[in-house]
Amino acid sequence: MCGIAGIIYRDGGGERHVGRDMTAMLQAMKHRGPDSTGYALYRPASDGYVMHIKLAESNGNQDFDFAQRLQRQRADVEGRMRSMGAQIGDIKSTTEYAMTVTFGFDGDLKQLADYVEDVRATEVLSLGRALEIVKDLGDANTVANDYGLNDYVGTHAIGHARMATESDVDIANAHPYWAYPFPDVAVVHNGQLTNYHQWRRRLERAGHRFQSMCDSEIIAVYLAERMAQGDSLEDSMRRSLEELDGVFTYICVTEDALGVAKDELGAKPLVLYESDDIVALASEEIAIRKVVDREIETYDPYEGAVLVWTR
User: Fold this and answer.
1) Per-residue pLDDT tens over the stretch 280-308
2) What is the total count of domains within the chain?
3) Half-sphere exposure (CA, 13 Å, Cβ side) for 271?
4) Final residue before a domain boundary, out of 129, 150, 184
5) pLDDT per position as a tens digit, 224-267
6) CA 165 to chain centre
7) DSSP label of 44
8) Which residues of 65-100 are buried (b: 16+ CB within 10 A; e: fewer)?
């Protein structure tokens, strides 16, 4: 079932309380996915990078030395990043089992992320100049309060309310997913890819590795690879409808754009509102009405549609 949402601001500098708005949208769809909530939030791009790192599962086994182990992991992550040449500006513990590192770096981002993930139980949730992925167990209000997202100011975002049907209820299986190792690309989707294993094998042979068994991650890496080869976001998304089989609707975000695609059957719902200052889309209209304080008219994109907006 699950619920997906996206929002992009088109007026002025394009900066608003995107964390608060996305929380309101996702909380309105809590009934579609109460198990976990995830955000891909975009701030204005900076000269450096931001890396979000999970050190442990929030519902994992917290044995007698849990706190000490996490402290060792944090120190190990910092040491590894510095040894690779990262100029660390700030390290923040977002929760007891997650951390955020702001840093400068001129080297290979994939090598850096791989080296960080060699730390036991550690997973890089996102990496980019603008992208920050936050995801955890519970509804949107719970996650937003735990991570202080209501004060997050940014330009655009996507979000996902998950109902676990085929995998565990944990952070590792929560959405969104970033397109490892491509910075600033993330995807949420509702539906299922029927040629998931074919595309996973193909992308793994091309040198990519995956953090999950989720088909959302396949879509993200597929699009990022196409863009790395010179395709635009819109062209990459149109090609995905020819090569990715299944019944799905997905929302993709990059550093400066938000796009949505529906497969040719168009069975998975998505409602869209567009004006001069904002574009908001979600699995249900009630989510959009939480962030637009006026009478609105929404519409459902046709099957096979690909739409892209830039800020």
Assistant:
1) 999 999 999 999 988 888 999 888 999 99
2) 2
3) 14
4) 129
5) 999 999 999 999 999 999 999 999 999 999 999 999 999 988 78
6) 20
7) P
8) eeeebbeebbebbbebbeeeebeeeeeeebeebbbb
Residues 81, 178: one domain? Answer: no
Average of per-residue pLDDT values in the chain: 91
Flag whether pLDDT at 62 surpasses 70: no
Of 74, 105, 129, the domain-final residue? 129
The interaxial angle of helices 18-28 and 140-147, nearest 10 deg, is: 160
pLDDT at 60: 62
Degrees, nearest 5: CA angle 16-36-130: 35
40 in the same domain as 66: no
Residues 60 and 34 reside in one and the same domain: no
Collapsing DSSP to helix, strand or coil, 123 comes out as strand
| Residue-number span of the structural domain to which 222 is assigned | 3-45+130-310
Q: Contact, 130 vs 15, CB < 8 A?
A: no
The stretch 189-208 carries a mean pLDDT of 93
Q: Does position 16 have pLDDT exceeding 70, yes or no?
A: yes
Distance of CA 224 to the CA centre of its chain: 13
CB burial readout 11-41, b (16+ within 10 A) else e: eeebebbbbbbbbbbbbbbbebbbbbbbbbb
Which residues are the active-site residues?
2
Q: What is the CATH number of the domain that holds 58?
A: 3.30.70.3400
Cα angle vertex 182, ends 288, 259, to 5°? 25
Residues 6+ apart with CB under 8 A from 130: 42, 43, 44, 45, 46, 155, 184, 255, 256
Report the C-alpha gap between 60 and 170 in whole angstroms. 8
Q: Are residues 77 and 190 in the same domain?
A: no
Give the count of beta carbons closer than 10 Å to the beta carbon of residue 53. Answer: 25
Q: What are the tens digits of pLDDT across the range 27-58? A: 999 999 888 999 999 988 778 999 999 998 87
Q: 228 with 239, same domain? A: yes
| pTM > 0.90 | yes
